[in-house]
Amino acid sequence: MNAHRPRKRFGQHFLSDPGVIDAIVRAIDPRPGDTIVEIGPGHGAITEPLAKKAGKLHCVELDRDLAAALRHRFSGSANVTVHEADALKFDFCALGDSLRIVGNLPYNISTPLLFHLIGSRDCIADMYFMLQKEVVDRMTAAPGNKTYGRLGIMLGCHLGVEALFDVGPQCFDPPPAVTSAVVRLAPLGCDRPAIDDEKLLGRLVATAFSQRRKTVRNALKSLLDETELRSLGVDPGKRPESLTIPDYVSLANYVSRRDGDSG
Ligand code: SAH
Fold first, then answer.
1. Could you please report the per-residue DSSP string of 27-96?
2. Which of 62, 73, 113, 117, when mutated, tests ligand 1's pocket best, judged by the most ligand atoms within 8 Å of its CB?
3. Structure confidence at residue 147 (pLDDT)
């Protein structure tokens, strides 16, 4: 038994349902040649089964008490290393390449963490995360969908995203207020769109969606005029949510080249 009290500020909701733990581990399907990185292992609900099957397991846990308990528990497992660290600042690529990253993430940091991991995509093979279902819906939304927006577009430029299954609050201790879902992400290969300026793309998409109910013509007026939109194959009368990811990339690449050319 442990005396650890869940810390709200660390987003601690520990998985307690053996069926869900098993389903996650089966989805990951760890192999002896794999290097797995678990973010936020907590009390080790999925750590134990991962450690048994993976070649190497790195755990990144911010909570000092939990990290110490894990270190003690896995002291006899030569393939497990516990890092007491903040995943938002962690240098994942220092652990190797073809990393498989997994975690029942603290929901309050999931978006910045996903963006941090996009920056490490060259050393990542795939990722499996438990997130708020609402966030997974945004990540997987297609154009035209109400939840399609900045998160889905920025992730979709770099990663394939697949929702696997939903998980109810009762599967955690303490139960979160929302339904969760497990998602699989994998870096896109050479078929991903070439982005000239990632920051500019982010700014353009944020600008478009800050005015979701306007037409593209009005929402992007500070960046592109109607003639430019048309020349890029975008109907200025459409709403921001009906433009595809390649549309946004081509708009951003155009602005980047235009403004770069004019100094
Ligand atoms: N994976 C465990 C615990 C989930 S709760 C389970 O499924 O039961 C989320 C975990 O992430 C907690 O252990 C919390 O301490 C840890 N955590 C919170 N913020 C973190 C951060 N910035 N970096 C690393 N771990 C963090």
1. HH---TT-EEEEE--TTTTTHHHHHHH-SEEEEEE--HHHHHHHHHHTTT-TTEEEEES-TTT--GGGG-
2. 62
3. 94
Query: What is the 54 CA–ligand 1 centroid distance (Å)?
Result: 20
Alpha carbon separation from 143 to 62, 115, 151, 157, 246 (Å, rounded) = 36, 21, 12, 13, 11
Identify the structural domains of the chain with CATH numbers, from first to last.
Answer: 8-191 (3.40.50.150), 198-262 (1.10.8.100)
Cα–Cα distance, 117 to 113 (Å, whole number): 6
- Whose structure tokens read 């998985």? 15
Cα of 5 vs centre of ligand 1, distance in Å, is 13
pLDDT tens profile 35-44 = 999 999 999 9
* Residues of the chain below pLDDT 70: 1-3, 261-263
